[in-house]
Structure formats: C-alpha cells, structure tokens
Amino acid sequence: MSGTAEIYDAVLDPGKLDLLRSWVRHQSWFDGDPERLEQVTAYRFVDPAGEVGMESFLLSDGENTFHVPVTYRGAELEGAADSLVGTMEHSVLGRRWVYDAPADPVYTTEVRRVISHRDTAADHVQMEDGAITPSPVNIRGGGDGPAEGVDAPQVIRVISEENNAEADRPLIGSPGTLSGTWQDVDGSHTAVLVVVD
Fold first, then answer.
1. Which tens digits make up the pLDDT trace of 31-86?
2. Which of 7, 17, 60, 80 has the CA that lies 20 to 30 A from 88?
C-alpha cells in the first residue's frame, strides 16, 4: 500500500473542479463541455519526502470519463510552466501550485514504483480526527513491463473499459499498467489508467 495521504478539511480558492474545468478546455485530448464535468472519484499517491501532493481525478461530462492526475506543490516546479494547471489558496497549507502530473518527476517516479511493485493507492487520513478510510478507487500495479522505459508514463486521458488486446488497448492488470476499479451510480468500472513503456 502506497502509504497514507493526509486530507484536510480546508477551504480552496478556486475549488479543484473549477481549476480543472478551466484547464481541460485547452487540452487536445478533451473534446467535451468542461462546464458539464463532475468528479466521479479520485485516488492518491504519497510522496515519500512528504512535500508533493498527488491526486488523480476521474471526471465525467455525462458521455466520457476523463483521467486527470495532478500534483500539488508549495512552490513553483522549475521548467514546468507549460504544465501548470493553475494556483489555488489552501486555507491550511497556503498557496499551492497545481501541475499536470506527468510533468512532475515526483509523480512519474511514484507511479512507476506502484506499477513495478504491484502496489495500490494510498489510504486517506482525515487530519482533524485521525479517521482512516481506504482509497475510493481500487488501484493495482501490474508489475514490470517488458522493459524499464525512460519516457514519462503514458496517462490514459479518455477512459475505456475495453479489455481487448486486438483493440490496440493494454489489457487490464497486464505488466506495465496501472489499473483501477471504482463504483458510481452506474455500477462498477475497471480500466487501465497509466501505461509505462
């Protein structure tokens, strides 16, 4: 298990969903209506150094589900201006710089580790009362792929639940993949979320 992510009962300005709606409208992989986006669920990883927050959102516009992982930092990430999602004010932690996660080396290192070690997402601990809850997404790494790639992991942005190698999609749970299972009003869903070459 990837540790325990600290969750604060905090006020955010702007809110996460507002920030993501503003950002996705400019992304080549997004062709929906950003104003219709709602959060389905999210999962987290933990930075071993305790400095960088990592949260991966599953968002739906009513037709498609989008996978949007981000990192939260207390200062700007050098050389990553093009990957800045935006900034927000966190009532406990102060200003946070939010980045598209594949551009952040802390995220890429951790997602590779989770995949390689067949690990899971982090549990959540509420900082106000210490209550611990499991990740709402059952994340599992598929183990090492055929080679240790040096490129950034490929984040699957538009989610497909196809598990068909002939459809030119990675098999759910196969080596070199990060897969997730989650529940929503339509039932249970399982899909590949990240692939490493």
1. 989 999 999 999 999 999 999 999 999 999 999 999 999 999 999 999 999 999 99
2. 60
Cβ pair 61, 32 in contact under 8 A: yes
Per-residue model confidence as pLDDT tens digits over 152-173 = 789 999 998 766 555 667 788 8
DSSP β-bridge partners for residue 179: 140, 192
Measured distance CA(121)–CA(111) in Å, rounded: 10
